[in-house]
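Cross-check.
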Amino acid sequence: MSITFYVVYQTLEWLALVTGLSYQEINIIVFYILVPSVFFALIDKILHKPIFLAAFSILLLIIFTQIRDFSLFSEQLFGWSVRFLLGFSYIGVGYDKASVLVCVLAPILLLIILFRLAFPVHFKRHFPTINLWLSRFRI
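Predicted model, tokenized:
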């Protein structure tokens, strides 16, 4: 898990360097905007209705019109996120492992499930082993 944490951390650091944004700003953009947007787009595809991504976009627009300093906002939200992940220490899971579980593995699992539901034919053709495994859980 430490390797995964390090790779994700270094990737976010590189994105911050390339874009000129802070690490905290990139982190918020990726995990609070981009990842949910992908999930909502897939849910809309599954439902055949553009509801969730549109609603999320409107919510983001409202929020961003109220934010005066995105850097400060990102630092505060990132701080809350860190405290949340540090809370896993009560069950013996360190910050790096909690980060990988909550921010990497859980979203990847959800992405696989949503992708299978949104594109069943393509998923079955290109990922037969995963498709078989998911079908055992009736997903």
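The chain has one domain: 2-136. The CA atoms of residues 24 and 120 lie 36 Å apart. Passed to J.P. for a second look.
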